[in-house]
Amino acid sequence: MPTNIDYDSKIPNNVALADDRRLQRALEGWQPKFLNWWGEMGPELENQGVYLRTAVSVGRDGWAHFDHVNVPDYRWGIFLAEPTPDRRVAFGEHKGQPVWQQVPGEYRADLQRLIVVQGDTEPASVEQQRLLGLSAPSLYDLRNLFQVNVEEGRHLWAMVYLLHAYFGREGREEAEALLYRNSGSPDSPRILGAFNEETADWLAFYMFTYFTDRDGKYQLGSLKESAFDPLSRTCSFMLKEEAHHMMVGTTGVDRVVTRSAQLIREHDTLDIAACGGIPLDIIQKYINFHYTVSLDLFGSETSTNAANYYTAGLKGRWQEERRKDDHRLTDDSVFMDKPEGDGTWSQEEVPTLLALNLDLRDEYISDCKNGVTRWNRILEDHGIDFRLRLPHPGFNRNVGFASGHHITPDGTIVDEQTWEAGRHHWLPTTEDLAFVRSLMQPVYERGKIAQWVAPPVNGINGKPFDYEYVRLV
Ligand code: BYC
Ligand code: FE
Ligand code: FE
């Protein structure tokens, strides 16, 4: 298995595509359809080159090369992390057996389903972010948007490769359908809820890359544990790219909070809308929204699907091999909080196997808390008492136990009337969204930045903030 990537062939890859002519031809047949989709649904905004990183190796160091690239000429390819010698199934009923290089017949449908769901989110996010280039706060941000978009496009390639290589005709049909469904389409929407929401402004983009890309991190982390080795290896490499997406989110929100804090100090008021800043209560509402739609992506707290995936070895837990238990979980149970019709919370004991979506969600939640701690430190450093927080996981949910209940950000179960009276305090209103949109005037001059966000502390690849990250027409 070469670490280096073959860039001479039409589709860059490190999977020896040239040795499998049938597969190569099939993927070369899909490639123009992908490029066509990219042209129609990919980022708007003409430019003459973006300072992008492209993967050149899957090894530990120096895996990426940075250069100005004309975006439609980006070399999307198929990159799998290096195989682990003698890798064994780490959990479930096949624990200890060699991992699979082919798809076992009995798990074909489930594996295909997982790969299709994962693959569906990648192009969906590109569609959601399609217009953001028209209102970027700086060339640095514009560059990051394009970087995230091309890599989400590559993540689609990663899943399409698996579908073509291992799932026959059905896999090829699913690969076509991934380009056919569209975010927000009334007739053929994307599969998961959060991927049909709009990402209409840059605060939403930072929140999305913080909260929703982070779901990606946890889902990919659990698929990386899969006994189906090609899936595991492709997810390992995707996770490498994913780190940058979350950096964009974490530092993006940092920069908005920093700028708002500066304006609050300067004008000695929390009401900074009039001076072109984003008030902290609007930032809180954005957190409430993006965090809770991302919680929905973990599925129900109890799930027989998740139990079956685990037992079969298809999808593990976050850092499965570091867990100190039998990795089969057939005799264990956990307690979980459940809202009741009478307005109280009860505790229910359920088999651990059924609660694996909740297990992953809990890992995700504790990671999300780190961002809030950072953002509050910025407020503290500016001498501001306001604190941001994550709402209760039952708030604003459409999937799982809490869907169908009205739950406030502090976890109180309330009636419909109370909910309706409170929701404009908790979730972005039409006016809030319109206000944030009104701030989104593009700033395309080198070294300049919009007034509602602070510049980044570090540039990309050691370049300064005023570097020509994007060459505009
Ligand atoms: N919306 O047993 P349950 C990323 C369906 S993000 C609509 O609770 P399960 C990225 C579910 O399919 C990571 N439907 O769910 C981020 C099931 O349907 P069936 C994406 C939903 O199966 C940013 C039924 O409800 N990757 O990479 O345990 C930018 C019962 O559900 C939703 C993955 O998600 C929903 N939110 O878990 C770019 C990994 N939730 O089977 C990219 C692959 C559930 O009864 N997916 N349903 O027809 C999975 O592991 C699982 O499918 C889920 C759901 C975790 C999503
Ligand atoms: Fe992705
Ligand atoms: Fe991502």
Automatic annotation (TrEMBL):
Keywords: Oxidoreductase. Its EC number is 1.14.13.208. The keyword Oxidoreductase applies. InterPro entries: Aromatic_CoA_ox/epox, Benzoyl_CoA_Oase_BoxB, Ferritin-like_SF, RNR-like. GO terms for molecular function: oxidoreductase activity. GO terms for biological process: phenylacetate catabolic process. It comes from the Bacteria. This is Benzoyl-CoA 2,3-epoxidase subunit BoxB.
